Write a sequence for this structure.
């Protein structure tokens, strides 16, 4: 049958149609009857269907319907174990309606609204996984069958909902009220009860956290407040912290899968205190704002806008640096984030920061501030940063303490220079990618001190840092700062540590060193906790002065050279110095010594006060710098060993001809107490060999050739208080030529209480067998002591002319030209041999045993005698040839011969009286002789003698005259002999040039081998 050719149904067909209608009618009636039965048993059927559905999915459940009609039902629901359900709802109100062909939709049920009153949900969050227990399978089933996009979602309301969540750190309990319409969350008011979370690495006391959400039209507002009372975690803690987050933006359109619209966000994070390790911050407040637009969905999401960041810290300590009132803000312009381009984030940044004070140890920065501008862009695969900024600050460094009155000039100037400065870095550029980072300086970083000094940190044409490599220069000068020129040609920093090639020249000083200089070049390496410096050449070091208490150094100079390994190593708190020292020189003002041409090796290591190793001195020249030289230059060598901070060693001294002079030992304990002991051994002096004058100018009186043996033993100790020293001089026997003549058999011993300065207690004793001078001097004995500036002679005596010369105690100063006084006592000395040996012995003979006293003073002008008296203790004879006088005169019954002048011959006399005077002095046997001795002008020594005796010529003389000669008195004009036995009372006033005589004598002795010395 077709529409174009319809055929009426036949009878059989009509019967089948009637039967079908009847069946349909029966089904409808049955259905209606069944429906009526179902409606009557609707609660039981619904309960069984729902419970069965949940039970089929492993969720034990219980449903209690309180009301059930065609438009909805009210029920009570429990899901999960009966004793501990995973979810329960005190009251569920569900409103629904039927759909079918009459509505143009398939037959079914459409839920219009669901209201949940006091729902309680239990969950677990352990080991990073969230679970709702037995409901996990139901949730999984629903997520596999999301609602149809065109289906309207029911209105869902939650009233007084509760979520109990157990975690690895404790229990959390949240309460919430909320409303959803057509799948859109319209309102949410949730709070999290205060809680204590405690577990591995965490102990937190949380305040009540609230979350509020409201949707109005296409936009949603969200506010989150999350306080943390206290929290302690691995290595850190926070106190009284709070997070406030507010956000306003478009509500995601789930059907269209779009989220376009304006976006506003603000976040505030504050805290009373935050700690991480040794770092801490107080009064922290961070604020961030964003204003812009968001568009797209999931894979095409994009964000664009502007933002600001603000930070404020009341105070804190970061990496050991104290910061007071730190603040900063940053403007982020043209912020862009695009997922379709690979989650690229880019922004223009302009930031500023400032602080009241930054304090690190002795360094203080006052009001530091700076700014930074540039671009930043990044995504998961790359990073691009280009920033440029400036930093400025006032500053001061007090590590050297305040300037004091006793400071060295360089130290005081350096302290004043560092007491105030201005730091300026006007152009610092930072460029970075994911693989590269570089820092460049457009202009040098400049530090200017208030005293006028300047330090520049610079590098031109290349970054100071680029991917772990770089280079830089540093110059310092002026205003009391040391002069520094540091050139780091290149350095690298990476997994292998730091390596730098550098050259350094520096001049300056700081107590205890002043006027120091350093010139070094080499490679510095820092790796694995080890720092080494390998010099590429010898390091030149110098210092004008090094203050070391009682052992200061001056004019220090020298070089330290590498020996194939690092010159300096630092590792594990230990240091190691190893090198070759050469051309070392220094002065020791306290001991008035100078060391020159020093060479040796240094191999020392240590940690703290503990020092180990060895220092060897291959050679050094030691010279005396005293105003009056004490010893001639000697050579020193030796070695000292250090163990645990204690020092021991030995040394040897030799003269420049390398003849052994002395050996010594050094020992110093860990407490700093120690000393030096030295011993010359028995030195042998011999002609052509070792000579005393070759050791010390002070031994010039021991002129060459000297022969004999002597020994000196001494020691110097230091520790608490001033250093001490002592020594012993033993002269076994010594023959030498002195300014007075050859000395035979000098011997004795002297105990020195101090060597620096040279001091000896009274009672030291030396003696000599004989001194061959004008006349032999024997049994010479001297008792003396030494003070810091003079020899104190307690007594001195010697035998001469069968008598003695005894000196009163006197003090002989060391200072050249310093006057000193003394007195000599003459005891029964026969002067015959002395007069014969004198320069005028060919014209004068005197046999007299004299006793007397002659006070004297030695001055730079010569020897001066004042108030000397002499007398003869037995008769004697005087013979003075007439050639010894310049003028002769006679008075009364006596003869007077004034003004004797030994240097010139007198003219012949022409009268008898003068002739008698000459004859009387040529052959005078005196019974008494008295003399006064006093110095006169021009270095002459005046002697006023008074003699009484008679004329005793070798042959008897008498006068024979004729009567006519007597009458005419013509005998007065001719030479007449003075009769023998004529009584003579003679006053002789004469003088000698004592200064010239002593000078001539000294020159004569010098020609014999002795050096001229002051008498």
């Amino acid at each position: 049958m077709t529409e174009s050719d319809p055929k009426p149904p036949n009878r059989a067909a009509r019967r089948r149609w009637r039967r079908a209608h009847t069946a349909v009618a029966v089904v409808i009636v049955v259905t209606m009857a069944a429906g009526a039965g179902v409606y009557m048993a609707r609660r039981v059927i619904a309960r069984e269907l729902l419970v069965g559905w949940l039970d089929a999915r492993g969720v034990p459940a219980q449903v209690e319907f309180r009301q059930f009609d065609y438009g909805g039902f009210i029920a009570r629901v429990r899901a999960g174990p009966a004793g501990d359900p995973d979810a329960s709802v005190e009251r569920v109100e569900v409103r629904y309606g039927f759909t079918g062909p009459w509505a143009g939709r398939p037959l079914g049920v459409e839920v219009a609204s669901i209201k949940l009153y006091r729902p309680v949900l239990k969950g677990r969050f352990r080991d990073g996984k969230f679970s709702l227990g037995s409901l996990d399978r139901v949730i999984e089933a629903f997520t596999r069958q999301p609602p149809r996009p065109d289906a309207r979602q029911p209105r869902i309301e939650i009233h007084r909902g509760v979520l109990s969540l157990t975690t690895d750190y404790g229990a959390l309990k949240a309460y919430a009220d909320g409303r959803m319409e057509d799948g859109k969350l319209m309102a949410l008011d949730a709070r999290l009860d205060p809680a204590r979370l405690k577990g591995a690495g965490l102990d937190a006391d949380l305040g009540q956290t609230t979350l509020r959400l409201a949707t109005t039209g296409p936009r949603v507002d969200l506010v989150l407040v999350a306080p943390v009372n206290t929290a302690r975690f691995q290595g850190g803690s926070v106190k009284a912290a709070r997070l406030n987050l507010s956000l306003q933006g478009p509500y995601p359109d789930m059907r269209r899968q779009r989220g376009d619209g304006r976006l506003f966000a603000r976040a505030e994070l504050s805290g009373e205190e935050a700690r991480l390790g040794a770092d801490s911050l107080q009064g922290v407040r961070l604020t961030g704002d964003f204003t812009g637009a968001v568009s797209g969905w999931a894979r095409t999401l994009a964000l664009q806008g502007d933002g600001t960041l603000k930070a404020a810290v009341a105070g804190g300590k970061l990496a050991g640096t104290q910061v007071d009132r730190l603040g900063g803000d940053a403007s982020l312009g043209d912020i862009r984030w695009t997922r379709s381009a690979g989650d690229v984030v880019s922004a223009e940044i302009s930031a500023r920061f400032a602080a009241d004070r930054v304090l690190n140890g002795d360094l203080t920065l006052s009001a530091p501030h700076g700014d930074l501008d540039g671009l930043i862009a990044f995504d998961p695969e790359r990073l691009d940063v280009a920033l440029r900024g400036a930093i400025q600050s006032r500053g001061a460094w007090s590590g050297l303490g305040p300037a004091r009155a006793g400071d060295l000039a360089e130290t005081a100037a350096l302290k004043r220079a560092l007491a105030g400065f201005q730091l300026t870095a006007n152009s610092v550029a930072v460029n970075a990618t994911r693989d590269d980072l570089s820092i460049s300086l457009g202009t040098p970083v400049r530090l200017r001190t208030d005293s006028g000094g300047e330090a520049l940190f610079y590098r031109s044409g290349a970054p100071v840092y680029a991917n772990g490599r770089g280079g830089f220069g540093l110059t310092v000068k002026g205003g009391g700062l040391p002069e520094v020129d540091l050139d780091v040609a290149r350095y690298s920093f990476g997994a292998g540590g730091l390596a730098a090639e550098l050259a350094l020249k520096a001049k300056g000083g700081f107590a205890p060193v002043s006027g120091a200089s350093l010139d070094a070049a080499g490679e510095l390496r820092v790796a694995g906790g080890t720092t080494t410096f390998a010099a590429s050449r010898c390091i030149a070091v110098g210092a004008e002065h090094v203050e070391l208490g009682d052992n200061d150094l001056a004019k220090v100079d020298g070089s330290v050279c590498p020996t194939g390994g690092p010159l300096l190593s630092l590792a594990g708190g230990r240091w190691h110095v190893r090198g070759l020292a050469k051309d070392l020189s220094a002065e020791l003002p306290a001991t008035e010594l100078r060391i020159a041409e020093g060479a040796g090796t240094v191999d020392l290591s240590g940690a703290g006060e503990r020092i180990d190793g060895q220092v060897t001195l291959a050679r050094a020249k030691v010279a005396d710098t005293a105003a009056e030289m004490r010893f001639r230059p000697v050579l020193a060598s030796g070695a000292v060993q250090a163990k645990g901070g204690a020092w021991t060693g030995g040394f040897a001294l030799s003269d420049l001809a390398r003849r052994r002079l002395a050996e010594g030992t050094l020992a110093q304990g860990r407490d700093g107490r120690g000393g030096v002991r030295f011993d010359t051994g028995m030195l042998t002096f011999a002609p052509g060999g070792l000579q005393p004058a070759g050791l010390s100018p002070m031994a010039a009186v021991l002129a060459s050739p000297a022969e004999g043996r002597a020994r000196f033993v001494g020691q110097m100790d230091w520790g608490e208080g001033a250093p001490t020293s002592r020594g012993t001089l033993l002269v076994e026997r010594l023959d030498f030529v002195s300014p007075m003549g050859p000395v035979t058999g000098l011997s004795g011993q002297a105990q020195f209480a101090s060597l620096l300065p040279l001091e000896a207690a009274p009672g030291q004793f030396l003696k000599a067998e004989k001194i061959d001078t004008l006349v032999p001097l024997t049994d010479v004995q001297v008792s003396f002591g030494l003070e810091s500036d003079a020899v104190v002679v307690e007594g001195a005596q010697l035998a001469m002319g069968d008598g003695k010369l005894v000196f009163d105690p006197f003090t002989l100063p060391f200072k050249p030209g310093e006057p000193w006084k003394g007195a000599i006592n003459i005891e029964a000395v026969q002067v015959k041999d002395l007069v014969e040996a004198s320069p005028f012995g060919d014209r004068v003979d005197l046999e007299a045993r004299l006793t007397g006293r002659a006070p004297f003073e030695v001055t730079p002008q010569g020897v001066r005698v004042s108030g000397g008296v002499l007398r003869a203790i037995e008769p004697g004879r005087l013979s003075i040839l007439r050639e010894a006088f310049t003028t002769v005169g006679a008075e009364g019954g006596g003869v007077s011969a004034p003004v004797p002048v030994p240097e010139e011959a007198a003219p012949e006399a022409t009268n008898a009286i003068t002739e008698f005077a000459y004859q009387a002095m040529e052959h005078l046997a005196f019974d008494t002789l008295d003399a006064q001795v006093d110095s006169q002008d021009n270095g002459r020594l005046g002697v006023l003698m008074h003699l009484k005796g008679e004329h005793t010529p070798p042959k008897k003389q008498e006068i024979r005259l004729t009567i006519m000669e007597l009458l005419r008195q013509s005998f007065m004009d001719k030479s007449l002999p003075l009769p023998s036995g004529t009584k003579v009372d003679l006053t002789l006033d004469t003088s000698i040039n004592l200064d010239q005589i002593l000078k001539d004598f000294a020159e004569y002795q010098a020609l014999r081998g002795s050096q001229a010395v002051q008498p």
The CA atoms of residues 305 and 372 lie 20 Å apart. The radius of gyration is 60 Å. The first strand starts at residue 61 and ends at 69. The chain has a mean pLDDT of 83.
